[in-house]
Amino acid sequence: GRTRAFIKVQEGCDHHCTYCLTRIARGKSHSRTLNDISRDIQAALAGGAKEVVLTGVQLGGWGQDFAESKRLGELLDHILSIDGYKRLRLSSIEPWDFSQDLLKFWSDERLCRHLHIPLQSGNDRILKAMGRPMTIIEYRELIETIRNKLPEIAITTDLIAGFPGESQEDFEATLAFVSSIGFAGGHVFTYSPRPGTAAFKMKERVPVSTGKERNAILRKVFNESGHDYRESFIDRDIKVLWESSQKNGDENWNLSGLTDNYIRVYATSSSDLWNQISQVHLKADHPRRNALLGNVKDDTETT
Ligand code: SF4
């Protein structure tokens, strides 16, 4: 069994990012029907899953390819009408696909306070060259709108370092922008040219060594802002879904799991709490990992 069920709701993508091979390989967005998605969720719940994670190459485009076009909100509405799970998480959503009226769904506590919203670059000229239909001002406004409604939400992102034409100045603009947002975490990819993509033909390639240096600097920013984000939850109680448990000697279990807002937590307990949700007191930084240490407050499952 699995604690989290990854449910694919669509494949393909209608966007045209110039570096992206997925778009070329998988074609246009193709959505799965509400019935098929419900059936997968019911099967996962029958298998014991506590959390449903909605995935898709372009999750935010769900339903738009149906003869009678639908929006992501209708999918969320439908899934939230299903009982039997504790958490619902969106895997990744493009900033221009996130419509503000989706925020109302977070009044249902099962929706995790976590959004992964790819940025890719913090520089408008590079975003344009990437074919990303968005400016950094629009991105910032979106994040502010989300945080106004959900102040403690974890916002994570993806970045590409060393995209063709990215000057030192462009990179510094990205660095400043990324620092100012304060992401709870993120992934940085060093640009690598993919034959068949539009970016492959772009002339001003950035040396791989430069791309790697920029990557390391951006990772450091994510590490620091991620640390700050986690730190703001120390000394507080929060629910954790335990994803792994290991016997530690005769008496104890070592547990690892996630909060709804995507903080990794380690704790020990006197019983095996795998696939249970416990109330946990977060007490300190983990000495070696991007995680927190916690004390399980009560070994009986909370709901
Ligand atoms: S939105 Fe994602 S999948 Fe679609 S083209 Fe851009 S990078 Fe590729």
Task: Describe the protein in words.
Helix content is 28%, strand content 25%. It has 3 domains: 1-112, Transcription Regulator spoIIAA (2-Layer Sandwich); 116-232, Transcription Regulator spoIIAA (2-Layer Sandwich), CATH 3.30.750.200; 237-296. The chain is α/β, with parallel strands linked by helices. The chain has helices at 22-26, 34-46, 72-80, 124-129, 136-149, 168-181, 208-231, and strands at 4-11, 30-31, 51-56, 87-90, 114-116, 154-161, 185-190, 237-248, 252-259, 264-269, 277-285, 292-296. It is globular. It has a 5-stranded mixed barrel with strand order 8-9-10-12-11. Strands 2-1-3-4 form a 4-stranded mixed β-sheet. A 3-stranded parallel β-sheet has the order 5-6-7, with helices on one face. Helix 6 (168-181) runs parallel beside helix 7. The protein contains 7 helices and 12 strands. The mean pLDDT is 95. Iron/sulfur cluster binds at residues 13, 15-17, 20, 22-23, 57-58, 94.
